[in-house]
Amino acid sequence: MSLPKDNKDSIPEPVKGLEGIVAADTNLSSVNGEKGILRYCGYNIDDLAFNTTFEETICLLYDNELPNQERLEEMTKKVGEARVLPDEVIRIITELVGKTSPMSTLRTVVSVLGHYEKNVPLKELPPKALRLVGQISTAVAIIHRLRKKLPIIEADPSKGHAEDFLRMLHGKEPTKIQVDALNLYLILLADHGFNASTFSARVTAGTLANLHSAITSAVGTLSGPLHGGANEKAMDMIIEVGTKKNASKYIQNAFDSKQKIMGFGHRVYKVDDARKPHLKKMAKKLWEEKNEMKLFEVAEEIEKQVKDRKPIITNVDFYSAPLLYGLDIPTDLFTPLFAMSRIAGWTAHVLEQYRNNRLIRPRARYVGQIDRTFRPIEQR
Ligand code: ACO
After folding, report:
1. What residue owns the CA closest to ligand 1's atom 2?
2. How many CA atoms lie less than 13 Å away from 308 in the CB half-sphere?
């Protein structure tokens, strides 16, 4: 880009999309995009995926340690007791459902929940953050129940988070495979380095704005189709393709018209997303339990057709879609479900930011005109 010679504001070439820029240190998660490895606090998610629960992941991200039995029970109880919303927040959800998307409602709910919290010193912040982890899941279930004109189901704090959410959402006890599938999903999406929504939470926290402001920023950022919104669009595509034989034509058309295919591509991964094989395996199990393999097979065929044409990696959102759909979760709740998991990472990152804060304030390179001649309004 050529700049005016005497542009005093000229600074180095910006890195578009901040690609490859390392903006901070973190103890929470690490992504090796070359090898396709994701670790939480040093533990490979391949070890955590099928062997732990979401509550254990929360402990890991908050304590930097996997819990012993006592700590896990304490965490399960705390998150369970947090699955309650103030009546006024339920009234606000009632006003909004049907008028906005579930994700917009959720963003408003997070913001409103901040009004019920006191400003507390940093050492008292983890319980406040944990409340939000519990509340977000209840809000998602209530958004769904109210729009379907179904009675709200109260939380049962004695149950695990995944199980209780499915019960609050669907009004019946989930099967063991369903609970395992949701646990797996919640574990795998809980944190992922400096992804866009986490970064936006940290930018907000970096100004020393409060926790709820930071998480409201994150929910808004997650909603976009290039980030958390991709799971919903991926499922829409799988449904639209409908049969294996339609996949080739659909994908060819998408490439011909230079459309981005949702659930593919990633800024960091150069090989398939570390979470993909686990999500795929679990989605398959779920659909096998239903004895209905058609949509899962369509998803596999779409993946094959994409890869036959271009070496694009499969990201977390692609097989999240048939997994969530296999849990009878409507597609417009997919991104709220993502938030229900990522809230663990977001809150842990906000705590980390506060503990070692420095205002996050990059620069922009000004490339417009300079030294323009000012003319009073009557002469313009
Ligand atoms: N479909 C088709 N082509 C793609 C896709 C895709 N999904 N993703 C990347 N490409 C191609 C681009 O066309 C480009 O090709 P070219 O070099 O021949 O022009 C190349 O791969 C690089 O793509 P960029 O868009 O420049 O990559 P960037 O790092 O900026 O974007 C992103 C990453 C936003 C994830 C992109 O891959 C995309 O839009 N994917 C679809 C949306 C999606 O699935 N988002 C979820 C990401 S994971 C998450 O946030 C939870």
Report:
1. 260
2. 11
User: Which residue in 110, 33, 65 sits closest to 271, CA to CA?
Assistant: 33
Cβ contact 110:219 at 8 Å: yes
Phi, psi (5° rounding) for residue 97? -60, 140
Q: Does ligand 1 have an atom closer than 6 angstroms to the CB of 339?
A: no
Task: Tell me the CATH number at 114.
Answer: 1.10.580.10
Q: Is 52 in the pocket of ligand 1 (CB under 6 A)?
A: no
Q: Using CA atoms, how far apart are residues 295 and 252, in angstroms rounded to an integer? A: 19
**Residue span of the structural domain in which 192 resides:** 29-224+331-355
Q: Residue 177 CB: number of other CB atoms within 10 A? A: 16
Q: pLDDT category, 6, cuts 50, 70, 90?
A: low
Pocket test for ligand 1, best of 235, 266, 306 (most atoms within 8 A of CB): 266
- Judge if 189 and 310 occupy the same domain: no
- Looking at the chain, the whole-number percentage of residues with pLDDT higher than 70 is 97
109-148 pLDDT, tens digit per residue, is 999 999 999 999 999 999 999 999 999 999 999 999 999 9
How many Å from the N-terminal Cα to the C-terminal Cα in the chain?
A: 30
**134 and 106 share a domain?**
yes
Q: Is 167 helix (H, G, I), strand (E, B) or coil?
A: helix
Task: Please count the other Cβ atoms lying within 10 Å of the Cβ belonging to residue 125.
Answer: 19
- For residues 74 and 127, give the distance between their C-alpha atoms in angstroms, rounded to a whole number: 12
Here the CATH number for the domain that contains residue 312 is 1.10.230.10
Instruction: Give the catalytic positions in this structure.
Output: 266, 317
Q: Do the domain assignments include residue 22?
A: no
Confirm or reject: Cβ of 121 under 6 Å from ligand 1: no
Helices (H) and strands (E) in the chain, counts: 16, 3
pLDDT one-digit tens code per residue, 212-270 = 999 999 999 999 999 999 999 999 999 999 999 999 999 999 999 999 999 999 999 99
Task: State pTM to two decimals.
Answer: 0.95
